[in-house]
Amino acid sequence: MLYRMIKIDFLFFCILAISCQVTSHKVTPYLSNRSSETVPFSPKPKVWAEFQTVKVADWEASLAGLLDLDDPKAKAAGLKDRLEPISIYFYLVKHAKFGTFMIDSGMGENFPKGKDGRLVSSIVESQMHFDKLKIYETTKSYLSKNKIDLKGVFFTHLHLDHTLGAYEIDRSVPFYVGPGEVTSKYFINLFVQGSTNRLLGESPNLVQFDFGKSQNEISVFDFFGDQSFFVLFVPGHTPGSLAFYIPSMEGGHLVLGDSCHTRWGWKEGVTPGAFTTDRKLNRKSLDFLKGLAETHKPKFVYPGHQERISSLEK
Ligand SMILES: [Zn+2]
């Protein structure tokens, strides 16, 4: 018995010892004490930020990853694991004074096999169903044909499907991530760290928000300080998962990131499944986002990987 306990302890120690960060690139903290608990009830920025969605690709992913199939609602609906159609998006936030920012990084031209070699390791590639990928836009070509001088990229999180275009972005552009997104250590990162490093590209300007709060605390940050663009810290899917609220005169845009991947998941309030790191915390964050949608009545809600939901839908 004692031998078994020592063995389990040793195994636990080994797992802990080889746990690592999602990327080994250097990260700079963005310290601020300006975060708050929620979005002001009726934000009135002097200038409204413009918001735009760009669909990058269609793809497929496992439903058991996208949705918690053990949730009573998923069971009642008879949902079983299968490949579910999904899309990859990036979003643009255009501010008259501060310029254009991107949310997530789209898809690089050399993907999945680059001129300079493979960006994604074969073990990752085998899990990602790249054969089902149908690409519509690539990042560098989109930014140059639309003459966009990018001022920053916000990552909803650093899972590979959100970093596929990062290596094409100018190295001086800040890559903002949520609290703990880079500095948290997990065993699983052992398998993805090399791919994440290559996708973020050489010496990325990685910046991690730090509000001096507990890692599990939901909070809100008025990024430009003028109520035009709110970064929402919604941990759970990953340690530093982000969502966004962009007010507009017609009712605003709520970008969920992968705190909720699917339209069905949002409508039924069912969290993601196996793709989520901490389901309990993801539940709390999804409830927070649902609450925000009820009070602020956004015109559109954007699940991480499916078509936006209009407030006019039932
Ligand atoms: Zn994703």
Automatic annotation (TrEMBL):
Zinc listed as a keyword: yes
The keyword Zinc is annotated on this UniProt entry: yes
Every Metallo-beta-lactamase domain range: 87-305
Keywords: Hydrolase, Metal-binding, Zinc
Listed SMART domains: Lactamase_B
PANTHER family: 102 KBASES UNSTABLE REGION: FROM 1 TO 119443 (PTHR42978:SF2), QUORUM-QUENCHING LACTONASE YTNP-RELATED-RELATED (PTHR42978)
Protein name, per record: MBL fold metallo-hydrolase
Natural source organism: Leptospira vanthielii
